[in-house]
Every structure is written in structure tokens, then in C-alpha cells.
Design brief:
It is a single chain. The chain is an alpha+beta fold and 767 residues long. The chain folds into 4 domains: 331 residues, Rossmann fold (3-Layer(aba) Sandwich), CATH 3.40.50.200; 113 residues, Alpha-Beta Plaits; 94 residues, Immunoglobulin-like; 172 residues. The chain is 15% helix and 29% strand. The protein contains 12 helices and 37 strands. The longest helix is centred in the first third of the chain and has 19 residues. It is globular. The protein starts with 26 loop residues before the first strand and ends in a 6-residue tail after the last strand.
């Protein structure tokens, strides 16, 4: 009898349209049945294997056994003859019938008397030409079957809330895919969505080949369960994993996979009950490596180490194939985990495998996820109350587990590899690890820890690092006019690089050096921190006329070329200067609302917040609120704060770290005990104003005065009366889960804000 764990359903806005959507949990485990003790290489007395079968391996060519070169391709007749010849020799030397054989890999599956498997393994292991003998272990994926949204029930194209938002496709369920937003997928899609020539092997329960999300991107696969060429998914798990990895994007329906243009090679090794054998998994790994797959996704595993399985893993690694495997869901231990707490999980535990742990919506460690010394990365896998939405046979549904985290890493590897096609699998894995976000409170003493590995996957950073570095040319002629009282002018240029790999550059004036200078003469630039170059004309004693100059910008390291900036200087006898009032900002802002006229002081203590009732319902992103909480620290938020939360340490956006769901007028550790005050003001029925008046951070800090105006039409107005430069804090707005944000400035970096500035922001979701 198969036990089903209790889980709670996760509801969404569309559940009224879909009857009976249930949650489901992936638990890849070895099923628990009594078996003989002392099985060589087993995980213990409860290790389960296929009755009447044993696996053996030998060195190719040993003891007269024929072996094919791994790159040799035979026609069907020659391959059949080679197989038959090898099978006859193995049968003669072992006394057992050959059920299956792999001449190129020196491996075979033999028939053994039921109940005598252990004895036969010991006898075979003693043969001098046998390198290993072991059971054909079983894998059992157990999770409750759910009634999912069918393709007919799923809504089709809906209008985007914001037109032209970079990175977001038009798939209607994109807003429910918090997992891909958490890893920065929209920013990664600005760079690449993968390549149609890139192949990812999906070794799982097969795939729904008729699902429109995978149209024209499925390679002919194989069903190792039924020994045919129809890897149709009759269990559901493989299709769900495939959708996370590579569901179609911008097709107007359903979900978007992270690598939406790659091809999938479906290799079915799990049957309709979620069971599979190590032999089939190993054979599928070898087939994937021989079929030009560059990444193998293994959202499954077992508790027994196996020479047959490890040999297959090593075979793929030797052919520059990246293997991405789940660490398993047994951190807490249970009957589903062979009654072991945090056991080793295979093939995840083998060297060279990129092993993946799971996190939740808010970058917490998912407490079911294995914590091991071989964990390399973490990715969102969800929890029972907040699961992952993806494709299922004939529709869409929820699941959670390390199986859901693993395809995100496989897809990220595919995106990175398409940008650097000559890379090795270790180089791709290193990029993913080196660009991961160090989340959680646990330290990373050697750059990693057992819960998150090197951190939570950040695919946006990964593809930006993989993107080839270059220097983008500065377009156009830079013009200056000098004369009369104007004896010097400057222009500041931005030097950009689409890659996060820095380019060191040098700027040289090659013409006009007696009147033209550059500052600095050398520096570095990358995507995250663009470089700046200032051109300065004058002072000069030149006669009236037109002069030309040239600045040469050249890369130093890496050498990616350079460009020339043409400069034009006009010298005149006289120049008229006209001073006009600065009205541009006045035309884009309302008048400052003075809180001292009839504003209500909130009398907030240091590091505190007060709940306020709004005079009108306010739409913040995709939710409507009747109350807010105003904090002395320059922000308002829409959720109840965590116990003891002070929010006196600002951070840059977006981040899963609370508060989230907030408006950051100027988030900083202000202290009203130093003379500042927070005022509430409602000048009319359509505006609600909170003003932070003469706020200071510490004794001697100059006062800062700024305000937030919430308008009934959904707009937010931020106004700044007095500030210091650079701005000491965070300005912006952020979605409830910290996956979407508009950041204006953070600790001086970003758009400069000065006294008298006003900003209009509208909080809408970009899907």
C-alpha cells in the first residue's frame, strides 16, 4: 500500500474557474520493503531492488569480451550481432541469462533466481574480470495525484497590465510563477531565451507530447519502462518538471519556462506509479550523452550508491555533459525516506554533479530539502502551502520539492551555455555558483554551506556574466561653445558594457590636446556599474572659429576593441547668457504640502510604526488595501510587521527580506528623538499625505524633509524639500514578495535626487 502525505491546497484567483485543483508533493524516494541484508553497495537492510535481476560491469575488452568504441556508430545488423556475441560470452562466463547489455559501456543486466540475488552478487563479484556486481535498485517517486487545470479550462491570452515591460512574456500565468521571478528570469530574458539548437535531456516519467507548451521542441525520445519509442508521461511528474524548464513563452497561454526555446529529449524511466530502476536511469544517462544533450536534468534519485549509476554519470561528464540532480526531500526523515534523516542521495552525491537544494518563496531554506556537503546551488522549490505552478498532462497544476528546484538550474545552465558555446560543463557550473545570491542567516565559511550550496540561483546575474564583454561606442559628435564669460564646458558620458565581466579601458586625447582633456584617463566598466568619462573643453586662448578634436577609447583588458569620440569646439567673440527660472520640475510636480498648517503629528517613537486608516481604497500592484502602517524610518507598508521588526536598516530592491509590500519614500534609520516629526495630512478627499519633517540619523546630521502623497487614482507622489547628497537611503516601491520593484536610488547609487525634486510612481505588476 502506498501512503500519501497530507498537504494543503494553495488557492489563486482563478480557482473559482477551476474545480478541484489539488496540491501535490514530489517525494523521490526508494520505496520501503524488506530485502536481504548485506547487499553490496546498498543503503542498508531496507534497500529495494528488482527481484530476479543483478547488474555487472567489466573493463571493456577484459576476458575476451568485445567492446565498441564509445564514438563508434554501427548499423542495426552489426549492432545486433555485436550484442548477441557479447551476450553469449557473458552468459557462458556467468551461467546467467543476459536480459540487457551495453557493450560500449562494459555493463549487463542478468537474470538471477528470485531470492538468490545477494548470493549471485557475491559470486559474480569474485570473478576476476568483473569490476562490480550489484542489485538493480528501485527508485520510487511518491506524491498524491491531483486534479489539475486542463488546457480547455486554462485562460488564454490576457492583456498585460503594462505594455512594453522588458523581460515579461504574455503568458497569462506568468504572474503566478513567483519561482522564476525570484531568480531574476525577466532580466535574464532581456539577454537570452536560449537556443533551438541546445538540447536538455529530461530523465523522468516522460512528457505529455501533445501539450502545446512543448510544440516543435521535442526530440524523439525513448521509453525504458515499456521498451518503445513513446515516452508519454502517465505519472505527471516529468511534464511538471519540463514546464518549469522549457514551457513555451510569449505564446499567449499557460506558463513560461525559464529556457523557453531549448529542445527537450524525453527519456522515460519512471512508470505510472513513479517507480524506476537504476539500470534504466544509467542507460538513459548514457543515451543522453550519446545524443548530443548538453544538460541532463535528474529530478529523482535513490538512497543506494551504485557502481552502474556512477559509471554512467562519469561517462556523461567525460563527454562534457552537465548533470543537474536534486538533493532529495528527506531532511526531516520519514517512512518515505527509508526511515533515514538527511540520507545521501544518488546520483546527486556523486562528484561532478551539480546538486540542487530547495528554497521557499522568501528565500528561506525549505525544511524538507537535504542539507549535504555536496549541495552546490539552491533554487525555489516551494513548500506545501506555497507551491510551484507548471504544466501537467493535459493542463497545469501544483507540485513542490527539490524536483521543482532542479529544472530551474538546468534551464539557467542552458541560457548561460548558449552565450558561451565553447565552455566546459565545469565552467558553466562555476558561473552559476559564482553569481548565486548568498541568502539566509547561515554563514558561507568557504563560499558555500550545506543548506544553499554557493547560494540561491540568480539567472539574471549568471547570463550577464556569461555575456561577452565589450565597450559600447558613444554615438555622435560632442559639441562645445566657448567665448565671452564662458571659458570652460564639460560633458559627462556613460561608458557601457553589456557584460558583468569588467572591461578596463583607457581614454586618450589624440587631437585637440591643447584645449581638450579627459577625466579619468582609465577606469573599468561593467553592466552593473557603468563607467563615466568626462570631456572638458577650455580654458583656451584660441581665436574665434571652429576646431575639431578626437578622443580614442581603447580596451586594455580584455582586449575587445575601442572607438573614437569626435569633438567639435566653436569659439565666439561674445556669448550671451540668459538666466530663466527653473520651471521644468515645477511643471511636473504639485506644490509642496506644508504639514505644519493643519497636519496631525503621529508622535512616533524611534524605530516604530503606526497603523492608519486610508480615506479611500488604494490599489498597490495587484491588491487593494484599506490601511497602511507608517514608520518613522521613511517608509509605509501594507502588511503587519514581524514581531520585533524595526526596519531601521535599509536595503536595495528587490529583495525577499522584509518589509516588502512597501513604499520607500526615503528608507533610512531616522531618529525622531533628535527633533524630527512624522505628520499625517489630508488636504482634500483624493490625497493622503505623510510627511517626514526634519528627520535626522544621528546628532549633527542635517535635517531631511520629504513626503509621500497617496492619490485616489492609484498614483504615488514623492516630494523632497531638503536632502543631503548623495541621498542616504532607499527610494522606491516593492511588490509583496520582493520579486518586483521600482528602485529610484539606493544609498546614492541610481537616479540623483535633489532639493525640490518630485517623483510620480504607479505600482502596477508588469504582467
Amino acid at each position: 500500500m502506498r501512503l500519501i502525505p497530507n498537504v494543503r491546497p494553495q488557492f489563486r484567483w482563478w480557482t473559482l474557474l477551476v474545480w478541484g485543483v489539488c496540491v501535490s508533493l514530489l517525494w523521490p524516494v526508494i520505496s520501503v520493503r524488506p530485502a536481504g541484508a548485506g547487499v553490496p553497495g546498498s543503503a542498508g537492510e531496507n534497500a529495494v531492488f528488482v527481484p530476479g535481476e543483478v547488474l555487472i560491469g567489466w573493463r571493456p575488452g577484459a576476458a575476451g569480451l568485445p567492446a565498441l568504441a564509445s564514438t563508434e556508430r554501427l548499423d542495426e545488423d552489426r549492432e545486433s550481432r555485436a550484442w548477441q556475441q557479447m551476450a553469449e560470452i557473458v552468459a557462458a562466463r556467468t551461467g546467467l541469462a543476459v536480459l540487457d547489455a551495453h557493450p560500449a559501456h562494459g555493463a549487463a543486466r542478468l537474470a538471477a533466481p528470485v531470492g538468490q540475488e545477494v548470493a549471485e552478487i557475491r559470486r559474480l563479484a569474485a570473478l576476476p574480470w568483473v569490476t562490480y556486481a550489484e542489485p538493480n535498485y528501485l527508485v520510487q517517486v511518491v506524491y498524491p495525484q491531483a486534479s489539475d487545470t486542463t488546457l480547455e479550462q486554462a485562460p488564454h491570452a490576457r492583456t498585460l497590465a503594462v505594455e512594453g515591460v522588458a523581460g515579461y512574456p504574455n503568458d497569462p500565468f506568468i504572474g503566478d510563477q513567483w519561482n522564476i521571478r525570484r531568480i531574476g528570469a525577466p532580466a535574464a530574458w532581456d539577454v537570452t531565451t536560449g537556443s533551438y539548437s541546445f538540447v536538455v535531456a529530461l530523465i523522468d516519467s516522460g512528457i505529455d507530447r501533445s501539450h502545446p507548451e512543448f510544440a516543435n521542441r521535442l526530440l524523439p525520445g525513448w521509453d525504458y519502462v515499456n521498451s518503445d519509442n513513446d515516452p508519454t508521461d502517465d505519472f505527471g511528474h516529468g511534464t511538471h518538471v519540463a514546464g518549469i524548464l522549457a514551457a513555451g513563452a510569449n505564446n499567449g497561454f499557460g506558463v513560461a519556462g525559464l529556457a523557453a526555446t531549448v529542445k527537450l529529449l524525453p527519456l522515460k524511466v519512471l512508470d505510472a506509479s513513479g517507480s524506476g530502476t537504476y539500470e534504466n536511469i544509467a542507460t538513459a544517462i548514457e543515451r543522453a550523452a550519446d545524443s548530443s544533450a548538453q544538460v541532463i536534468n535528474l529530478s529523482l534519485g535513490g538512497f543506494s550508491s551504485s557502481s552502474r549509476l556512477q559509471t554512467a554519470v562519469n561517462y556523461a561528464l567525460a563527454r562534457n555533459v552537465l548533470i543537474v540532480a536534486a538533493v532529495g526531500n528527506c531532511a526531516q526523515g520519514s517512512w518515505q525516506c527509508n526511515y533515514q534523516t538527511n540520507p545521501n542521495y544518488y546520483p546527486a552525491a556523486y562528484g561532478g554533479v551539480l546538486t540542487v537544494a530547495a528554497t521557499d518563496h522568501y528565500d528561506n531554506w525549505a525544511n524538507y530539502s537535504g542539507y549535504k556537503s555536496y549541495v552546490q546551488l539552491a533554487a525555489p522549490g516551494g513548500v506545501s502551502s506555497d507551491q510551484i505552478w507548471s504544466t501537467t498532462p493535459h493542463g497545469y497544476g501544483f507540485e513542490y520539492g527539490t524536483s521543482m528546484a532542479t529544472p530551474l538550474v538546468s534551464a539557467a545552465a542552458a541560457l548561460v551555455w548558449t552565450l558561451i558555446p565553447a565552455a566546459t560543463y565545469t565552467q558553466v557550473a562555476d558561473i552559476l555558483k559564482n553569481t548565486a545570491d548568498k541568502i539566509g542567516s547561515d554563514p558561507y565559511p568557504t563560499g558555500r554551506n550545506d543548506y544553499f550550496g554557493y547560494g540561491r540561483l540568480n539567472v539574471a546575474k549568471a547570463v550577464r556574466w556569461a555575456y561577452p564583454p565589450s565597450l559600447a561606442p558613444v554615438a555622435g559628435v560632442q559639441s562645445f561653445t566657448l567665448g565671452g564669460p564662458v571659458q570652460q564646458q564639460s560633458v559627462r558620458l556613460k561608458l557601457t558594457n553589456p557584460s558583468d565581466q569588467a572591461v578596463w579601458w583607457q581614454a586618450t586625447v589624440t587631437q585637440g590636446g591643447h584645449w581638450l582633456t579627459v577625466i579619468p584617463t582609465s577606469d573599468a566598466t561593467n553592466f552593473s556599474t557603468p563607467g563615466t568619462l568626462t570631456l572638458r573643453a577650455g580654458p583656451t586662448a584660441l581665436s574665434p572659429g571652429v576646431y575639431t578634436g578626437t578622443v580614442q577609447v581603447q580596451s586594455l583588458y580584455p582586449q575587445v576593441g575601442g572607438f573614437t569620440i569626435p569633438v567639435r569646439l566653436q569659439i565666439t567673440n561674445t556669448m550671451r547668457q540668459t538666466f530663466v527660472p527653473f520651471i521644468a520640475k515645477e511643471s511636473t510636480r504639485v506644490a509642496w504640502i506644508d504639514p505644519l498648517l493643519d497636519g496631525q503629528p503621529l508622535n512616533l517613537e524611534n524605530d516604530s510604526a503606526r497603523q492608519l486608516l486610508l480615506p479611500f481604497p488604494f490599489r498597490f500592484y495587484d491588491r487593494t488595501y484599506a490601511t497602511i502602517r507608517a514608520s518613522d524610518n521613511g517608509l509605509v507598508f501594507f502588511d503587519t510587521p514581524a514581531a520585533g521588526a524595526k526596519y531601521n536598516q535599509n536595503s536595495c530592491l528587490p529583495t525577499a527580506t522584509t518589509p516588502n509590500n512597501a513604499i520607500y519614500a526615503l528608507w533610512q534609520d531616522w531618529n525622531p528623538n533628535l527633533g524630527g516629526q512624522v505628520y499625517l495630512h489630508q488636504p482634500d478627499p483624493d490625497r493622503y499625505v505623510i510627511t517626514w519633517y526634519q528627520m535626522r540619523r544621528f546628532a549633527g546630521d542635517p535635517p531631511h524633509t520629504f513626503q509621500l502623497v497617496m492619490q485616489s487614482d492609484g498614483r504615488l507622489l514623492l516630494q523632497y524639500l531638503t536632502l543631503t547628497s548623495p541621498v542616504p537611503g532607499t527610494v522606491g516601491i516593492e511588490y509583496f514578495d520582493g520579486t518586483v520593484a521600482t528602485q529610484v536610488v539606493c544609498n546614492g547609487a541610481g537616479r540623483a535626487i535633489a532639493d525640490g525634486d518630485a517623483l510620480y510612481l504607479r505600482p502596477v505588476v508588469p504582467w
